[in-house]
Structures are given as structure tokens and as C-alpha cells.
Amino acid sequence: MGMLTPDDMERIAALCRKYDIPAAKVTGAQRLAFLGLPPERLAELKEELRIPDSLPHTRNRVHYVQACPGSTWCKYGTGNSLDLATRIEKIELNGPLPYKVKVGISGCRMCCCESWIRDVGLISQKNGWKMIFGGNGAGRPRIGDAVAEDLNDREAVALVEKCLNFYIENARYKTRSARFMERFGIEALKKGLFG
Ligand code: SF4
Fold first, then answer.
1. Staple partner for 85: which of 21, 67, 138, 143, CB 3.0–4.6 Å?
2. CA distances from 177 to 73, 84, 104, 148 (A)
3. Whole-prediction pTM value?
4. Is the CB of 156 under 6 A from ligand 1?
5. DSSP string of 44-98, one letter each residue
6. Which ligand 1 atom is nearest residue 108's CA?
7. In 3-state terms, what secondary structure has residue 104?
8. CATH code of the region 64-194
9. Gap between the Cα atoms of 27 and 35, Å rounded
10. Are 181 and 144 contacting, i.e. CB atoms less than 8 angstroms apart?
11. Range(s) within the chain of domains with CATH label 3.30.413.10
12. pLDDT of 61
């Protein structure tokens, strides 16, 4: 979620100095990029950070969860985006996802985390969370479909889990949620989820 404590920042600064890294950046995918790292020092840095040689993109969890500061830190926030994001990050699905899944959680209707163009979007509204599925902001952008609204935190996490398991069961391998929804349609999805 791009959250950094003062201790994290001190450690990052120390690593940058040690490895001659001119700048670091929290990326849109919520990773930390060490920009300008001398290539010959990559292996050493990975060893220090205990990063394995390769990390699978497709696994039984979502690819990344992006969340705005929400009601904890933002005066406009009505929903606790950071807490919801933490719970969604921990969801263990029934199998590997067909393709990467990005989640964007916005603590109010200003939608700073671009929830309409994420595979899974959540937006806090007056009566609870609205959940969106099938958005994409890449080369073939798509506005996602609204699946449900007025969800409390527990209901939102449960629906995200159910929806992603449905996607696992019904989408072909390497089909992003946006393409899946173009073919499948929101009514069929709702029927599958709610009967
Ligand atoms: S979406 Fe709303 S709560 Fe979140 S950062 Fe933007 S204005 Fe604040």
C-alpha cells in the first residue's frame, strides 16, 4: 500500500548510500524501485534484502493492493481503505488466478486510487463500500462493472474473495478480468455470485 514508517525510510536511505543508488521510488504497483542501481551490485542487494531470484506473478493471492490514506489520514475519507487493503492482501484463494489482479481501494467518492479501472475496485460511499470488477487502465482501458454496494468491511472482503474464486473457476488462463467481463457480462457474474 506504499506505506513507509520513519524506520523504513531510514533503512532505504542507508541502502541507497551503501549501494550508490541515486533515487528510490514507490511504484504504481506498490513496489520500491531502486533507480540507477549499478547492475553489478544487484545480486548483493537482493541477498541483503533476502529477495528470491524470481517471484511468481500468478499465485493464490492478488497481485497488488493499492489503497489511499482513507479515513485514517484523509479528511474526506469515510472508509478505512488501509485496513480493508490489509485484509484483502491476506485472502488465500482456491487456486492460482488466471492473470494478475490489481486492487484499488478509495476511501471516498473522489476515487484517488482509480478504483473504476482496477480488476477489483472498492469505493467508500455513504452507506458502505461499492465493489467494482473488471476494470483496466492499460493499453485497452475498461471501466469496471459495479457488482454490489452498501457493503460493510466484512461483506466487502467476503465478496472480493467470492468474486475472485468465481473468476478462477470461469476464466481461461491469462485472461485479464476486463477481457473476461467483456465476454461474460455483469448479469452472468451477478447470477454466479448471488444466484
Ligand atoms: S479517495 Fe478520498 S479518502 Fe482517499 S485520498 Fe482521495 S480524497 Fe482522501
1. 67
2. 31, 21, 14, 17
3. 0.91
4. no
5. HHHHHTT--S---SSSSS-SEEEE--HHHH-TT--S-HHHHHHHHHTPPPSS--S
6. 2
7. strand
8. 3.30.413.10
9. 11
10. yes
11. 64-194
12. 84
Side chain identity at residue 191, one-letter code: K
3-class SS of residue 161 = helix
- Residue recorded with cell 492478488: 62
Residue nearest atom 6 of ligand 1, based on CA coordinates: 112
How far apart are the CA of 130 and the centre of ligand 1, in A? 15
Mutation to probe ligand 1, out of 106, 116, 125 (largest number of atoms < 8 A from CB)? 106
Walk along the chain (195 residues) and give the pLDDT tens digit of each residue: 888 999 999 999 999 999 999 999 998 888 899 999 999 999 999 999 887 766 655 578 888 899 999 999 999 999 999 999 999 999 999 999 999 999 999 999 999 999 999 999 999 999 999 999 999 998 999 999 999 999 999 999 999 999 999 999 999 999 999 999 999 999 999 999 998
